[in-house]
Every structure is written in structure tokens, then in C-alpha cells.
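Standup notes
- HV: blocked on the assembly model, inputs below
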Amino acid sequence: MKPFFEQTLKNSARGAARLRWLIAPLLALVAALIALSFGRYPLSVWETMHFLAAATGLASMEPERFALLYNVIVDIRLPRVLAAILIGAALSVSGAAYQALFRNPLVSPGILGVLAGASAGAALGILLDGSWLVIQAGAFVMGLAAVGIGVGIAHLFGGGSIIMLILGGILSGALFASLLTVVKYVADPYNQLPAIVYWLMGSLGHANFNDTTWAAIPITAGIVLLCLMGRALDALSMGDDEARALGVPVMTVRLATIAIATLISAMTVSIAGMIGWIGLIVPHFARLLVGPGNARLLPAAASLGAAFLLFADGLARNLFTAELPIGIVTEILGIPIFLIVLHRVRRGWT
Amino acid sequence: MRLAARDISFAYGSRPVLSGADLALSAGELALLLGVNGAGKSTLLKVMLGLQRPGRGTVTIDGEPLARRRRRELARLIAYVPQVHAAPFPYTVRQVAMMGRLPATGIFKAPGAADLASVARVLEHLRIDHLAERPYTEISGGERQLTLIARALAQEARLLVMDEPLAGLDYGNQVRLLKRLQGLAADGYGVLMTTHDPNLPLSGCQRVALLIDGRIAADGSPGEVLTPEAIHRLYGVRVDLLRTADGRGIAFRPADRSIRFSIS
């Protein structure tokens, strides 16, 4: 009798483990529904679902009520929710891919200088012009430039080894950080300087439907491509020679991962400014959920990151009457969560 | 199947490591490569695996230059077993072994039922199937080495190139692993491994090669190659070869009389 029970227990545990990958996407879905419902004009989740059913023609709703909800849900809340999903997913999947690539669970998407470059670029945009388009373009272009310089330095000295890449990233990050200081110093202290400071704190409030849909295509494509590289990243995280001996094109995978992660990270900065900690923390929770294998980890990190940023944005919007910059929320949430992560890392992840 | 390196020269910058080394490995033999620290043993292995491009010389597999084969194709012929290391992430033993299926599936395709079955078979063959779901970071050095060997076997390559597989293992694990490696050679695998222990070749390997000053100074059966003079040339230490009553050499022992070895 006993062995039978044990066997059944084992089987059901294994079955549960097989379904664990579903948890993260479900969390993201629930978080999205809640985010669409909460706000100045509170709705119940059922109302939101009823509206969505009506919008897709599955249910009927009074035209007046429908128009009101359309305005609240689609015009006001949806762009923000989409932006949160895209940014949370992009930063988390980039962070997870970088952690495998650099063989270090404490690496974040900013390690090669993309965030420093993007901040300097956005600040320069505010200084020169101040229009939203110029700020976005500045953030994007200088984010790429910073990583380009970092990788360039690495290739100049070490043929792209891990340690040289990290050193190159530190150097280029420092360069753009000093550039940001220069921009802040010359900025007009009454208008431009506060704008720069607020921008650097990050906010999803600027996200409009056009920007978000424009960015959605490349960011989604980038996330999918990174997820496809999961197995190659597994091998790469064991060492270059081992990966090569397993038939993995090491340099191609490494450069492609860096290029894609940089592109999508720079895009998130250009939509919403600096949102820290997500790329560092979320992969660890995804690892708790589905294990370290990157083929499962990367999609899980993407969904979990979307859920986490929706949650953080909910706090940023609803905690006080005035909206908090989301960068502050993720940082305040990030520190205690990071302590938990450190605790785990000490337990044999070194 | 035969992997052969001919006249290999290699330098790190201006420091020459190999100068005209020849070494070959055939399926079905257990071959040992001996050399002092820094002699270039690992470098020679990496050149033979195609991971380092030699300055001069060629590596061929069944007569065809290695450089002409695609990496993925090569990975199905030759497998690399590195020195035991710590992985940064707690992949399970099964996940590490599954990496060995990458050459067969390609990097974008998920492993299928056949791959799962092949990995299960390999873990069973090495008798580590009970460890399958344990994290690689939390098992012993000997078990990690077996896991890396399982990954190599999952590649279904006939030739296994191992960098000091016995280093860092306790005595019991060394003996057990050596037995496994002899078993693999008997099953038709070609195993080339580096070692520091001159006594190791005396216990059942077919070939031993000595790497001295960047070239292979001797290559043959342990009986021909391993003389006290050769050990002195290799390590700069005088040794005696202990023999059984019927004259078979069984172990080297330092000849320095100031070291006392006997157990009374």
C-alpha cells in the first residue's frame, strides 16, 4: 500500500512541477486585469472582463456604458498596461539572458552601460530640444552607443572574453555617467534640470498608444528571439570551450544576445525612463518557479517581469493621490527583495 | 575512427607551448597523456578538439582536416570532458546531460522523447540515474565528473577527450572512475585523458604518451614507455619501479632514500 501511495504522490508532484511554467503567465494575466480595473474610476474585475467580452463581440453592453468604459479602459489605462507589460518583460528577459551569458546571477541588463548611456542621451535630449521624440531618440541612440563602446573596448583588448566585456561596460558606463553630470551642470536649473531629474526617476505616465504600439513590435520580437536562445545560453553558461565543443556558435550567440538585450533595454528607457532592479530580481524568482534551465526560465522571467511591473505601477498610481515615479517604487520594492535573493545566492549559487 | 594531430606548434603570444607535437587517438583505446604543469597538455587537447587553432600542423579525423568540418558535426564525433568546475547555476544532473543532445537537435529545437530516452540511458549506464534531479552544484566532485562524462556520452561521440578527469577526486572515486573509463574503452569508445600520476598508466591502459618540451617524447604501451629513466626525464625525480615476484612493474616510488615509505 505504502509504495503505491508514494508513487502516486511522486507522480502528482511531478505533474504539478510540469504545470509550474503556467503560474507566471497566469499571474501576468491577473495583474493585467487588475491594472485595467484599478484607478480613479474604480471598476470591478468582472466589469472589466465584461467590457473585454463586449469589445470582442462575445457579450452585449449598453452603448453609453460601453463608450464610458472604452474611454477609461482602452484610451486611458490600456497604453499604460501595455507599456508595463512590455517593459517588465523586456528588462526581465534581458536580465535573465545576461545572467547566463556572464555566468553571474547578480548581473543586470545595465552591466554593459546601456542604462547609463540612455540616461545621458535622454538628458541631452531635454537640454537640446525637450520634445518627447528627441528625448526618446537620444535615449535609444546613446544607450546603443554606450554598449557599442563597451564591447569595442573589450574587443580591442581581449577578443570579447567575459571579464573584458564587464570592464568595457564599467568604463563606458562611467564615461556616460560623467557625460550626464556635464549635461546636468549646463542645464537651466529652473526648468531643464528638474525635467532631467524627474525623467531619470522613470514613469509610465508618458506612454501613449502610438509610442507603445510602435515599440511593441521590436520589443516582442526581441523577447521571442532571446527565449529561443535558451538552450544555447545553458551551454554558454558552462564555459566557452564547453559550449563550442557542444557545437554552439559561441561568438554569434553572445553578440546576438548582447545586441538584442541592448536594443530592447534601450527601448524601455526611451518609453519610460530608468526603471531599476527588475532585470536583476525577477530572473531569480523565475528560477524559483521553473528552475535554472534557460529554455523555460526566459519565458517565465518575461511573464513574471510583466506581472511585477504591473504591480509596481499599480502602487505608483494608487498609493498616494499624486503619482509616484515608478523608478522609485521598483527601487523601494527591490531592496528587500534583493536581500531575499542574496540569501539564496549565498546558499550555493556561487 | 581516428583523431590525429600532426606536427602541432602553438604559442601563447611569444611564449611557445607546443613545438611539433604528434598524438593520435583511436576508438577502443584508453590513452594517457603525461606531462609536468604547464607542459601544454590541456593546450594539446584543445587543439585536438578544434577549440584552439595551432600555429602550425594539422589535426585530422579519419584523414580529413578538422577545420573543414562544421562545429556541430564535429560535436557528434568528438566530445570534451573538462576538469570538474562549479557551475554558476544549479542545473540538475539531467539538464547538464541534456546539453549533450545540443549537437543532435541544434540550439533552437527542444529535446524530444528520443533525446530524453537517450539521456536516461546514459545516466543509467554510468549509474548516476538516482542523481538525475539533483542540482549539479550540490553533488560531490566525483559525481560532477560523472555528470560531465554523461553529457559527453549523450553527444554519441565515439572519441572522448578528458582534461584531468581524476584530479580533485578522492582515492575511492579515482579508482571507480578509472574502472568506468576502462569500461568505456572496452565498449569501443576512444578515451584520451591527461594525468599527473605516473602510476595510473600501470593499471590497465593501452597507450601512454609523454609530453616534454612541447613535443611527444615517447608514445606506446606503458611497458615500453614508462621506465624509471623516462619518469626522471619527465619530472626530474629519480624513481624505482616496484615489481611483483614474476617481474611485472606495478608502481613507481621515489628513489630518494631520505623519504621513508615503508609501513611497519
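- HV (later): unblocked. Residues 85-156 of chain B form one domain. The two ends of chain B are 50 Å apart (CA to CA).
- Next: hand off to the docking folks.
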